[in-house]
Amino acid sequence: AIEAGLVERGIHTPVHVMRSDAGVMSLQAACERPVNTVLSGPAGGAKGAASLAAVAGYPNIVSLDMGGTSTDVGLSVDADPRLSTDTWISHYPVKVPIIDITTIGAGGGSLAFVSSVGALRVGPQSAGADPGPACYGRGGELPTVTDANLVLGRLPEYLAGGEIRLDAERAREAIARHIAEPLKLSVEEAAHGIIRIVNEGMLGALRVVSVQRGIDPRDLVLVPFGGAGPVHGAELARLVGIETMLVPPTPGVLSALGFLLADIRNVFTLTRVGLIGQLDLERYNRELATLIDQAQEWLAREGIAPEARAVEVALDLRYRGQAYELPIPVPPVLDEAALAQAAARFHAEHKARYGFDQPFVPVELVTLRVTALGRLPKPPLEPAPEEGEDASAAVVAVRPVYFDDGYRETPVYDRSRLRPGNRIEGPALILQADCTTVLHPGQSLRVDGFGNLVVRIAG
Q1: How far is the C-alpha of 275 from the C-alpha of 366, rounded, in Å?
Q2: Among 263, 372, 371, residue whose Cα is nearest residue 315
Q3: Closest CA to 213 of 360, 105, 60, 53
Q4: What is the pLDDT of residues 280-312, one digit of tens each?
Q5: For residue 334, which of 365, 298, 294 has the smallest C-alpha distance?
Q6: pLDDT for position 10
Q7: Cα gap 136→435, rounded to integer Å
Q8: Beta bridge partners of 367
Q9: Taking Cα atoms as reference points, which of 264, 206, 249, 171 lies closest to residue 66?
Q10: Residues of the chain with pLDDT > 90: what percent?
Q11: Given pLDDT bands bounded at 50, 70 and 90, which one contains residue 162?
């Protein structure tokens, strides 16, 4: 329907659909293999975060996409989102490459409540967009994370460039009635408790994609985005031990930018089980050559010029007896030396991801994997020259904001007025149409040439 409607309107440009592995494909390819669109929305965000951070000099990141109902956390290494071929959607295993993300029910609309045993809980239930948080004034009566941030002064009175007015008094009433009074707390204490609990939930997800994948989070940069990510990002970075946070220029629509930065991609696989050291190399090379030919033919059908094509080859390996594999890159023509090197890389990758290896156990090849890549034109990402450090021209207000030690008079900055090279010392709020960035006391930021906010996290 999209294709036909565009043709009727005289628009003949090709239409691409985002894939689960952070690539794109044509509408025809999406119709042929719709399974490759599973989790493709979060894939766009992960791709956008990885690309922008890499251009800015940070190739290894953990991305945090916090919206209204959920938060998606993913790891990107060497500027590429990490993929998994062992994903479950509900009760169904999906054996196609999908970005390796952890999703939790924590967002701006997550509901806060006192449980039957008297404990403060947040989520996974959400107020959604309708009626939404109590402060939206659309009939919602239960307090949410957005209400808590508003009560603490961490959100402006208007969102989306003035289209949505937030009612702070409704937010205070909801938190007072449902949280503060039952727990005998002040409204500010209750709101701060809501924020601490939702942050702890996201902190667990950050640890899953870093520590449990064999990566020290202190070696990563946090890239928060989505409508609520930059509100919580600086405190999450401090809690997990990350020293640098990078807030993209347009965090609320970063997934859309990720779509524009993605390349054509498709994966061709063939299951061929055998033990390393006992393979018929002549047969395996013939089958790899066939897959490579299929990849090249597919790229030609997608309209990719020969000079813009690339093909990557990998073997899905596992220890004999395992039920999951790891893709290990190999050259397009296999020999004994290449297989030995692949086995050694598999041991190292297995130890990095799962904390152990078993070099005494035979390594089993399960799948031949060929990835077709077609480079597409991309929007230019060029740095602007840095100007002075003084950011005072961007200050639009000063107001009290509640942090761990109580209220502090906090300058509010209009991000559109910040210039490359500007520096800000926390506490501070940086406002823009699609999100708000909260800078805590003791933290600082500078604006780089790409317009990113590069935040230095205090210990």
Answers
A1: 9
A2: 371
A3: 60
A4: 999 999 999 999 999 999 999 888 999 999 999
A5: 365
A6: 94
A7: 16
A8: 271, 316
A9: 206
A10: 64
A11: low
| Per-residue confidence (pLDDT) for residue 319, from 0 to 100 | 95
Residue 328 burial by Cβ neighbours in a 10 Å radius (0-12, 13-18, 19+): buried
Q: What is the mean pLDDT of residues 13-36?
A: 89
Do 446 and 423 meet the contact criterion of CB atoms below 8 Å apart?
A: yes
Q: Which residue has the tokens 């940069």?
A: 221
Element (H, E) at 321: none
Predicted confidence (pLDDT) per residue in 73-100, tens digit: 999 988 889 888 778 777 888 888 888 8
Q: Which residue has the tokens 């307090």?
A: 143
Q: How far is CA 62 from the centre of its chain?
A: 7
| Token couple for 159 | 């969102």
* DSSP H helical ranges for 139-228: 145-151, 168-175, 181-183, 187-209
Residues 6+ apart with CB under 8 A from 373: 23, 263, 264, 265, 299, 309, 310, 311, 312
SS3 109: coil
**What whole-number distance in Å separates Cα of residue 237 and Cα of residue 367?**
38
Give the closest residue to 365 by CA, choosing from 416, 417, 406, 330.
Answer: 330
* pLDDT surpassing 70 at residue 116: yes
Q: What distance in Å separates the CA atoms of residue 453 and residue 444, rounded to the nearest whole number?
A: 10
DSSP secondary structure of 221-289:
EEEEETTTHHHHHHHHHHHHT--EEEE-S-GGGHHHHHHHH--EEEEEEEEEEEETTS--HHHHHHHHH
- How many residues are present in the chain? 459
The whole-number pLDDT of residue 459 equals: 53
* pLDDT level of residue 14 (50, 70, 90 thresholds): confident
Instruction: Please give the Cα distance from 370 to 327 (Å, whole number).
Output: 11
Q: Give residue-wise pLDDT tens across range 266-288.
A: 889 999 999 998 989 999 999 99
The neighbouring-strand residues paired with 318 are: 364
How many angstroms separate the CA atoms of 404 and 391, rounded?
A: 25
* Closest listed residue to residue 117, CA positions, set 183, 194, 204, 36: 183
CA distances from 405 to 149, 402, 408 (A): 16, 8, 8
Helices then strands, counting H and E runs in the chain, come out as 11, 27
What CA–CA distance (Å, rounded) separates 38 from 258? 16
Contacts of 3 (CB under 8 A, 6+ apart): 15, 27
Q: Say if residue 131 is preceded by a cis peptide, omega within 30 of 0.
A: yes
